Every structure is written in structure tokens, then in C-alpha cells.
Amino acid sequence: MDEARIACANAALAPIPPNYCAVTPEDVAARENGHSFHRALHIGWAWGRDDTGREYLDLLWEHRHPGAHACRYFADGTTEDIAVPYGGYPMAEDPVENAEREQWYLAENRRIYADLRARGLLPDVGGNVPSQDINEFLRSGGLADDQ
């Protein structure tokens, strides 16, 4: 098996509590794209190549608590953060300003959910762990396909 892929997968899976992780680095290395659902934790991954031809692993893991985490892992050990949905926004005292903040927050989260889905890190709308589907609905003002 490809040692560089296994190294990427090891680094990506390392922060996930072992009793919630139902996939091994070998599982992730062997499949170009996949999803794992275990104990209300969703793990999504996709392999790709950047503009210079370097292979990378994009990996998302999400649970209602502590939330979502996503990163791009390269075989040389470098990483790049991938945006995940915001859990909330600071309220303003002014109702007009607060409404503007809320609209920005909802629109930004819809954009982020769409990006994660386009990367292959999220399943189709409605196909996630139920708690994550609820989070997506609440954090985006409705499912992305409803907009």
C-alpha cells in the first residue's frame, strides 16, 4: 500500500478519539472518496492533486459536540485549513445590524456547506448523521438545496 497515503491518513485521523473512529488509515488510503458514520461522528475524505501535482488528502470530521474540523494533508507533513461552518455569530445591540449579521452568517454557512459538498467531504443533502443534518439546517437557514 502507498506509504505516503497512509502517512497522510494517519495524520488526518490522529485528532479523532479512537472510540469514535470507525475507519483505519489503510481504509482511507485505499478509497479515493468515502464517508464513515459511527457514534454520531461523520468522517468524510477525498484524495486529490494540487496545481503542482502534489497528492493531498482532504478530511472532515464532525460531531454535534465539538463541531466540525477540516484540513488538507500533504505527504510532506504540511497542512492547509479548510473552512467549516460557523457555530454562531456575535449579536449586535442594533436590530438592523443584527439582522445584517444573521444574513451574512447564514449565507456564508450555505457557501461553506456547498464547498465541503463539492470537495466530496459531505454526503448528499439529508444523508448525514441526523444531528449534523439538523445543524446544517439551523446554521444555513435551511438546506442548501432549499435556497
In round numbers, the mean pLDDT is: 92
If helices are DSSP runs of H or I spanning 4 or more residues, what is the number of helices? Answer: 4
Number of strands: 5
- The low-confidence parts are none
The global form is: elongated
Structural class: alpha+beta
Order of SSEs? HHEEEEEHH
| Largest sheet entry | 5 strands, antiparallel
Strand content: 15-25%
Q: What's the N-to-C terminus distance?
A: 43 Å
- How many individual domains? 1
Question: Could you explain the architecture of this structure?
Answer:
The structure is a single chain. The chain is an alpha+beta fold and 147 residues long. It has one domain. 35% of the residues lie in helices and 24% in strands. It has four helices and five strands. The termini are far apart. The mean pLDDT is 92.
Describe what is shown at a glance.
With 147 residues, the protein is of the alpha+beta class. The chain is built from four helices and five strands, in the order ααβββββαα. β3 and β4 (67-74) form a beta hairpin.
